[in-house]
Design brief:
- The chain is mostly helical.
- It contains eleven helices and no strands.
- It is globular and about 60 Å long.
């Protein structure tokens, strides 16, 4: 089906790997919850670490996790592509690498959100539960905007692209309808595919803005909280 063909494999593998980001999110949330449970946060502050330095250290951990995951996806995609791709020309292999950038930004954004929830709620189970509830809230809001307030209009999509989880989801669009076999079936059924699969700079900027917001909110929350 061409799943492991270059350059499609960059799109496909980053999309699939991004679905599994919840496992790393559990690590991030648990890491933050343990800081409260075992009193290490309070001890670090007593030992002279500032709250700003603490948040920065956790953000660097988030970036490290995202970087390691991105490198892993890059190497696995490269190995699979070189083994099974029908196209192995140098220019084709290293085209569409912007999906790896989108994957990295998406992970940093999602983990930053999880870090903020870990600081907000202090308990990993409740933080993950809040994450699921927030996902449902965004889905309901998106449905109301699309079918009730702005039916038959693209205004709802314009508004929803600024939601935190939705903005992260928009970085890498689903790749399945991009496959030639799916497009052939759609053509035979008279269904035209006008979906945009590109990684856009404004989508990256929106998620980067959310990363900054989550980190600033985490720092502000930590400064106000009595530890």
């Amino acid at each position: 089906m061409g799943i492991f063909n270059f350059p499609f494999i960059w799109h496909f593998n980053t999309y699939i790997a991004a679905i599994l980001k919840l496992f790393l999110a559990i690590v991030i949330v648990s890491m933050m919850a343990n800081e409260y449970s075992y009193g290490t946060l309070k001890q670090n502050l007593i030992d002279g670490m500032s709250k700003k330095e603490f948040i920065l250290s956790k953000f660097l951990t988030v970036v490290l996790f995202a970087s390691a995951s991105t490198v892993f996806v890059f190497l696995m995609s490269l190995i699979l592509g070189l083994s099974f791709s029908s196209y192995t020309e140098f220019g084709i292999i290293f085209s569409n690498l912007e999906y790896l950038l989108a994957y990295f930004v998406k992970l940093v954004g999602f983990f930053s959100f999880c870090l903020f929830l870990g600081i907000l709620v202090k308990r990993s189970a409740f933080a993950l539960g809040f994450l699921m509830v927030w996902n449902i809230i965004e889905g309901i809001a998106k449905g109301i905007l699309a079918f009730k307030i702005f039916p038959n209009s693209t205004i709802s999509d314009t508004i929803c692209q600024f939601f935190p989880l939705e903005s992260m989801s928009n970085l890498i669009v689903e790749p399945f309808t991009r496959l030639s076999v799916i497009q052939s079936i759609g053509t035979q059924m008279g269904v035209e595919n006008f979906k945009d699969y590109d990684v856009h700079w404004y989508s990256l900027l929106i998620v980067i803005a959310w990363i900054v917001i989550f980190m600033l909110m985490s720092l502000k929350l930590l400064k106000k909280r009595d530890l």
